[in-house]
From TrEMBL:
The keyword Transport applies. GO terms for molecular function: ATP binding; ATP hydrolysis activity; transmembrane transporter activity. GO terms for cellular component: membrane protein complex; plasma membrane. Keywords: ATP-binding, Nucleotide-binding, Transport. It comes from Parafrankia irregularis. InterPro entries: AAA+_ATPase, ABC_transporter-like_ATP-bd, ABC_transporter-like_CS, ABC_transpr_LolD-like, MacB-like_ATP-bd, P-loop_NTPase. Residues 1-20, 29-42 have a biased composition (Low complexity). This is Putative ABC transport system ATP-binding protein. The keyword Hydrolase does not apply. PANTHER family: ABC TRANSPORTER ABCH.1 (PTHR24220:SF86), IMPORT ATP-BINDING PROTEIN (PTHR24220). Residues 49-273 form the ABC transporter domain. Residues 1-42 are annotated as: Disordered. Transmembrane segments: none annotated.
Length: 273
């Protein structure tokens, strides 16, 4: 990667600093007072995520599908933003372009100050390993490995040495309230605990931004509350979170809600803390 990140990253061996130790990151105060907004019209120099006029069209059997049609969004470091909107409005596509999993047709996507344009797949994978954590509706756990090993392996894959990965796994499980289940298999956990484990895995690389696509979609209300409570705690500790949800109660836990419609993002009047 050629660009320098806008915000220096913690050394890979540091113990889960973005979550457990770091004070609110630069830009958090701006975000909380409404400094960062849909459309990318505000201070953007320190944004964790910045999309400008993003277009993405998928080829389909009948007619092309225009999933993103000029989408713009700025997420400041430390912000917790919920994305709502009707089915098919482009929410998952938006997360996928932020993760570099989908290439855009036009417009720009910047993560941690680095443009995703013209990057090779290998470069995008490196950028993801360093800056992106992803959580999905279904948990994507390694069912034959213990809870602890699920997190340690995720840390190892992000480039952390064995001892540091074990330490980070321990700290994350402690933070996420799963330490007493460290030696269990994921199949023995409740739905909420399984999603907490998936979140621990997603945080193992100390990501600049945690992307969550319907993280409570497969959970009952107790599980959803558990996950939302965790996101709120992570956010208070400075973790940037961009979450897609259909659930108004879950969205209300975010600092700011934006709405997608027909591939564009708009600020929801009156939403946010
Ligand atoms: N890989 C793909 N190939 C073709 N069409 C796609 C692809 N991915 C998404 N689409 C289409 O793009 C549009 C936006 O999809 P997307 O999944 O982003 O919407 P969404 O708002 O997340 O929907 P939902 O709330 O139902 O998950 C939809 O019409 C979808 O069918």
């Amino acid at each position: 990667m050629s660009d320098a990140p806008a915000t220096p990253q913690a050394p890979q061996s540091s113990p889960i600093s973005p979550i457990s130790q770091v004070p609110p990151r630069p830009g958090l105060a701006d975000a909380r007072t409404g400094g960062a907004r849909a459309g990318g019209d505000a201070r953007t120099g320190d944004a964790a995520v910045l999309l400008r006029s993003v277009y993405k069209t998928f080829a389909a059997d009948t007619a092309p599908v225009h999933a993103l049609r000029g989408a713009g969004l700025t997420v400041a470091h430390g912000e917790f933003v919920a994305v709502m909107g009707p089915s098919g409005s482009g929410k998952s596509t938006l997360l996928n372009v932020v993760a570099g999993l989908e290439h855009v047709d036009d417009g720009s996507v910047t993560v941690a100050g680095m443009s995703l344009a013209s990057r090779s797949e290998a470069d995008l994978a490196r950028l993801r390993r360093r800056h992106i954590g992803m959580v999905f509706q279904f948990f994507h756990l390694l069912e034959t490995m213990t809870v602890a090993d699920n997190v340690v392996l995720a840390a190892r894959l992000s480039g952390v040495g064995r001892r540091a990965a074990v330490r980070r796994g321990h700290d994350l499980l402690d933070l996420l309230g799963l330490l007493e289940r460290a030696d269990s298999l994921p199949g023995t956990l409740s739905g909420g605990q399984r999603q907490r484990l998936a979140i621990a895995r997603a945080l193992a690389n100390e990501p600049t931004v945690l992307l969550a696509d319907e993280p409570t979609g497969a959970l009952d209300s107790a599980g959803a509350a558990e996950v939302l409570d965790l996101f709120t705690r992570l956010h208070r500790r400075g973790q940037t979170i961009l979450m897609v949800t259909h659930d108004h109660q879950v969205a209300a836990g975010a600092e700011r809600i934006v709405t997608m419609r027909d591939g564009r993002v708009s600020e929801r009047p009156g939403a946010g803390a």
